[in-house]
Amino acid sequence: MVLDNHSYLILNGFIKGGIMQTNKQTLIESFANTLSGYIINIGIQFIIWPIFGISISLGENMLIGLVFLFISVFRNFVVRRIFSRL
Predict the structure, then answer these.
(1) From its phi and psi, is residue 17 left (phi > 0), alpha (psi between -120 and 50) or beta?
(2) pLDDT tens string 15-39
(3) What residues does each domain of the chain span?
């Protein structure tokens, strides 16, 4: 079967002038996206925790945030890879 140039580009991941992300690029994007959320959440947690009567140190707050950060990076990576195959 002979494909025209447009069909070849679509089948090989070239969409709108770009190349489909590699796994490494997806992981870097997922980490950067989630890291920005982590930084924002650390500040928000200092407001939210006391409202619920929770008193924790900065170190504990950051550790809790790191657990959620890595879970979020993994989730974001998996979802991105699933959608890239659709």
Answers:
(1) left
(2) 555 567 788 888 888 888 888 888 8
(3) 21-85
